[in-house]
From TrEMBL:
<feature type="coiled-coil region">
    <location>
        <begin position="69"/>
        <end position="115"/>
    </location>
</feature>
<dbReference type="Pfam" id="PF00472">
    <property type="entry name" value="RF-1"/>
</dbReference>
<keyword id="KW-0963">Cytoplasm</keyword>
<dbReference type="InterPro" id="IPR004374">
    <property type="entry name" value="PrfB"/>
</dbReference>
<keyword id="KW-0488">Methylation</keyword>
<dbReference type="Pfam" id="PF03462">
    <property type="entry name" value="PCRF"/>
</dbReference>
<comment type="function">
    <text>Peptide chain release factor 2 directs the termination of translation in response to the peptide chain termination codons UGA and UAA.</text>
</comment>
<dbReference type="InterPro" id="IPR045853">
    <property type="entry name" value="Pep_chain_release_fac_I_sf"/>
</dbReference>
<feature type="domain" description="Prokaryotic-type class I peptide chain release factors">
    <location>
        <begin position="244"/>
        <end position="260"/>
    </location>
</feature>
<dbReference type="InterPro" id="IPR000352">
    <property type="entry name" value="Pep_chain_release_fac_I"/>
</dbReference>
<feature type="modified residue" description="N5-methylglutamine">
    <location>
        <position position="251"/>
    </location>
</feature>
<protein>
    <recommendedName>
        <fullName>Peptide chain release factor 2</fullName>
    </recommendedName>
</protein>
<dbReference type="InterPro" id="IPR005139">
    <property type="entry name" value="PCRF"/>
</dbReference>
<keyword id="KW-0648">Protein biosynthesis</keyword>
<comment type="similarity">
    <text>Belongs to the prokaryotic/mitochondrial release factor family.</text>
</comment>
<keyword id="KW-0175">Coiled coil</keyword>
Amino acid sequence: MANDDLSTRLTDLGHSLDSIEAVADLERLRAEIAELEEQVAAPDLWDDQDNAQRVTSQLSAKQGEVDRLVGLRSRLEEAELMLELAEEENDADTTAEVVRELDKLAKDVEALEVRTLLSGEYDPRDALITIRAEAGGVDAADFAEMLMRMYMRWADRHGYATEVYDTSYAEEAGLKSATFAIKAPFAYGTLSVEQGTHRLVRISPFDNQGRRQTSFAGVEVLPVTEEADSIDIPEADLRIDVFRSSGPGGQSVNTTDSAVRITHLPTGIVVSCQNEKSQLQNKAAALRVLQSRLLEKARQDREKELNALKSDGGNSWGAQMRSYVMNPYQMVKDLRTEHEVGNPEAVFDGDIDGFIDAGIRWRKKAETSA
């Protein structure tokens, strides 16, 4: 690649980074970090552990965002210096190194550009994900567990914390359902495009005749509630049942009735948590999940009111959105964006950023044209 072309790429990346920094508002972020650092330094911070965790989590997230932007700017400046050096010394090796670095920079800048498209009310929040096995019997339960691992591996790749609230194991293999949180800046806005029905086609490992099986799993993505949401849930609206936690195959993993199931009587929403050590911890976790469900229901109710004024009736989140085909060919394809890859194993190992980015762009385009 000619040095003039490399200079043009550097200039274009610089303009893109300028736009991202303007949207992120670095000065505002630094002011918020300074305020959070004062709160963290307070001697009584940990008197309220929930608030302390919220403050330290926000500080870590905002500092990480600033570090990413500053790091990209520094890498861009270093690439400019390397290109000048390569031109002065006519050094082909250094030029090749600049090309490799620009390829990496372009990928990282594009990922941050997608972040600027997340402008929804709850987009900056942590994500609460529930995966349910649907049609397909034991294959569907196994598929649900594969999807849970996929999202956990995705979070691990990015260094995001996760917390499992509930896992309901199927009898033979896999999961009936699972609920877990991914704790990261803009986790909800990022992962909300994963909501919908996922479809798997493969030779079933559970079929002794080796037949091809199609199975389905549903993914629900909600924003984690915060204190400011003020969702008041009267005790009279709740039915709380306790039961014994169980592991795969129905085997008991707890000798006390510590698992908690909460039914919200007005809406019929049912949530449960069995992964904490005590009944009180499970109840608190289940209430957090219930609040997220009620928050999403309120959002959907508002959306329905608006959609009632439109002829198209709004979006259907329950529609089939992605196919994972492992036989007779290898392909994972998003049915909304047409984004596809030919390596299902990599996808199931958490390599889903391409699908997420395409989904966010697709959604933004749909919102703009609506």
